[in-house]
Amino acid sequence: MECRPGSVDGRWYTASGAGARPAAAVGSAVVGTAPGHGAAPRAGAGAPTELIRAAALDDHGGRSPGIAGPRTALTAREMPRGIMTTDRAVIAIVGAGPRGTGLLERIGASVPELLPRAAVLDVHLIDPYPAGAGRIWRHEQSPLLAMNSMAADVTMFTDDSVRCDGPIVSGPSMWGWAQDLREGRLAGEDVADLGPDLAAELHTLTAATFPSRRLQSAYLCWVLRHVIADLPAAVRVHVHECRATGLTDDGAAQLVHLDGGAILRVDAVILASGHLDATPTDAELDLATRASAAGLRYLPPEQTTDSDLSSIEPGEPVIVRGTGLAFVDLVVLLFEGRGGRYEQGPDGELRYVPSGREPVLHVGSPRGSLYHAKTEYALRGGRPTLPRFLGPEEVDPLVARGDVDLRTEAWPLMAKEIAWGWYHELLHGHPDRVRLDADTFTDRYSTAAWGSPEMVALLDEAVPDSRDRIDFAALDRPLDGVRAGSLDALQPLVRAHIENDLHQHVDPAHTPHLGAFVAMLSVYAQITPLVTTGALTARSKDRDIRWWQGLFNAIASGPPGFRVRQMLALSRAGFVRFLGPGMWTEVDGSVFRAGGSAVSGESVVATVMVDGRLQEPSASRTTDPLLADLLRRGEVAEEILVDDDGTVLRNTGEIRVRPADGALVDATGRAHPRRFAIGPHTNVRVAGAFTRPGTNAQSLRYNDAVARAVLRSLPATARASSAA
Fold first, then answer.
1. Closest Cα to residue 422, out of 297, 512, 548?
2. Quick one: 572 exposed, middle or buried, by C-beta within 10 A (0-12, 13-18, 19+)?
3. pLDDT for residue 471 is more than 80
């Protein structure tokens, strides 16, 4: 990958990549050689790189969709002359998307406390995709794709709710950024620089809007620019728009190998690459082999935005496995993306107007329905105090004891906490639908165990309408028990369920759903120690965590309401047909065949099948060369769940890290002193790289813990501590 030089005030800088073009000498650093570490450059290692505070212009001299954001005037800032340095430290962050940005922000926040006063810190951000946005949120994707969060529910910054050891450094949510940009309150930023399409979107944005991913990309890129600009003077940032291909020890130092042969010599490394591609599983390879032999087309799981959908012909039937967010993206790209559009009918119902290039999708999954729609209302009764029934006082003893079965021991507490969010909102937002006053209900609820006769009696007495009671079974498996005589007869039944679910998530009469969602976020964070410290039995972790993650995704990660309305319009038009729950598929001669448990004796056939879901993480199947090499050498290890009797239950595919700080654990069980990892490819799963404001977000707290551990691992920090 070629670096892209630019000129600022007559000075040259480069955002380095392997094979960088030579630029005017602006410092002593060589691409692949961190200042002060003295590694000699190898032939072809690259050009000198300036210590930069922003990234490069694009090849046409305009804005890059990456860190450069809307600006074409960039600032390359060197160390202020008044600073006398006696020590240097170097960190590499592999992955410059929102996780990498979040780590950089937390590193900068703790530098004044943890880094020696006279030290200089160089941070290298390494990513082949645009810094700030990264792969998933890069600008270069369809403008039709939208976020699954409202603008007011997205932030990258800590706030007063976040309980962490590092300093709280506030910043705007996406909605706050949009307002500041519209009102001209962001120095050096102009709405017009977003381009006409994003500028028009920004002007119509509200707190409750589900923004396009391109607008989120602009926010994330601004966040990185803002974070870099606010770093302490002793911190310098280098952006490498290329891939890290290897990582080796060199004494106490780490060598990060880049595309094209360049090498960075650093003190500590954080792997923050996000979702990593992997080769297909054995089952997927077997399916692909049988499909190929039969002349069929099979698209395995992957990021839908990167899929080549050109092989799907207009009018042909397609079998799709999965009804989650990857399926939603698939629908957007195959229908609106091919020129179709939606119109509001005279009865207010959305109608799909085809372009003539549409396929027909036959879709199913174990649940058989879409994820629950995002809520489009606010809490009427105020945010409940959380955690209340599942916090450290309840979790810590379980962690200390170990050998925990989540479904029998933790789930009753989890369910009570989630239900408390529901009933708190019902009590305070809709008191006319409850027969007891809030204090009486709360006192009795607090002392009753979930599922106990006392709890059942309380809910029967206090909540007369069964629709006002939380039903976990219905939330988890909404179509269980649905039966139809034919697939044609099944379609209105599934649509009726989806319409009812949508109504409950947009009508303020049903705000208890939002109360449960808020409590669910708290529960997700609270049970993380149970999952990551080995406190669960292997059998429980194998069985229960996938169930819990599936329930969480179905309730908390659903599509916006407007996407659900579009799905319903496509279903009414006959372009999306639901197979219902219990989906099964097979290769039957020269076709794929699929059906579901709701309709017996009838199936559909097609010559193309799409697995509409993300790949499961797998270090052993990863296509990432750095991680694959570490695994071959035994310097990372996948988490393998082994039952008490020695039976191997499952290889999770996730790399093992020390739960407290993300330190990489090798095949011998040793934690590396200066290698760390964070994200969905590790066995510490935190919800998302960005989060809701005001929720004491687990992702922000974990970023802080990892960042501070990295700073403490630096030799410069250790030397200062010894001297003290």
1. 512
2. middle
3. yes
User: Maximum Cα–Cα distance for the chain, whole Å?
Assistant: 81
Beta bridge pairs of residue 453: none
**Look-up of token digits 């501590």:** 721
Strands 638-642, 244-250: pairing kind: unpaired
Q: For the stretch 46-82, what's the b/e string if a residue is b when 16 or more beta carbons lie within 10 angstroms of its beta carbon?
A: bbbbbbbbbbbbbeeeebbbbbbbbbeebebbeeeee
Q: Are the CB atoms for 65 and 140 separated by under 8 Å? A: yes
pLDDT of residue 117: 86
Query: Do residues 319 and 604 lie in contact, with contact meaning Cβ atoms separated by under 8 Å?
Result: yes
At 527 the three-state DSSP class reads coil
Amino acid (1-letter code) at residue 528: T
Angle (CA) 180 182 187, round 5°: 55
Query: Do 355 and 339 touch, CB atoms closer than 8 A?
Result: yes
Question: Which H or E element spans position 8?
Answer: strand 6-8
Phi then psi for residue 327, to 5 deg, are -65, -40
Closest CA to 389 of 446, 452, 456: 446
Q: What is the pTM of this model?
A: 0.88
Task: Say yes or no to pLDDT of 145 above 80.
Answer: yes
The pLDDT, as a whole number, for residue 722 is 62
Separation CA 672–CA 398 (nearest Å) = 27
How do strand 268-271 and strand 591-596 relate by DSSP bridges? unpaired
Calpha distance 102→132 (Å, rounded)? 10
Residue 387: is the preceding peptide bond cis (ω within 30°)?
yes
Q: Cβ(239)–Cβ(67) under 8 Å? A: yes
Q: Do the strands 297-299 and 317-321 form a parallel or antiparallel pair, or are they unpaired?
A: unpaired
pLDDT tens-digit readout, 542-564: 999 999 999 999 998 899 999 99
Tally of residues, the chain? 724
Question: Is the separation of the CB atoms in 570 and 257 below 8 Å?
Answer: no
Of the chain, the percentage scoring pLDDT greater than 90 comes to 80
The string of DSSP codes covering 160-191 is TT---SSPP-----HHHHHHHHHTT-STT--G
Number of Cβ within 10 Å of residue 644's Cβ equals 9
Question: Does the pLDDT at position 673 exceed 90?
Answer: yes
Amino acid present at 135: R
Query: What pLDDT, in 10s, does the model give residues 251-303?
Result: 999 999 999 899 999 999 999 988 888 999 999 999 999 999 999 999 999 88
- What six digits make up the tokens of 75? 């600032």
Who wins on pLDDT, 203 or 719? 203
Mean pLDDT of the chain: 88
Identity at 5, one-letter amino acid code: P
d(CA 101, CA 260) in angstroms, rounded, equals 25
Using only the alpha carbons of the chain, give its radius of gyration. Answer: 26
C-alpha span between 604 and 318 (Å, rounded) = 9
Count the Cβ atoms, other than its own, within 10 Å of residue 320: 29
pLDDT digits (tens, 9 = 90+) for 214-249: 999 999 999 999 999 999 999 999 999 999 999 999
* Of 340, 288, 292, residue with least CA distance to 314: 340
Distance CA 520, CA 526 (A): 10
CA angle at 689 for the pair 16 and 614, rounded to the nearest 5°: 95
pLDDT digits (tens, 9 = 90+) for 30-75: 233 333 333 332 323 333 233 333 333 222 223 333 444 433 222 3
Residue 173 clears pLDDT 50, i.e. is over it = yes
Long-range contacts of 531-537 (CB under 8 A, 24+ apart): 531/685, 532/659, 532/683, 532/684, 532/685, 533/399, 533/659, 534/402, 535/398, 535/399, 535/401, 535/402, 535/403, 535/404, 536/404, 536/405, 536/406, 537/403, 537/404, 537/405, 537/644
3-state helix, strand, coil in the chain (%, to 5): 35, 20, 45
Round to whole Å and give the CA distance between 218 and 227: 14
Query: Measured on CA atoms in the order 623, 624, 628, 631, is the torsion positive or negative?
Result: negative
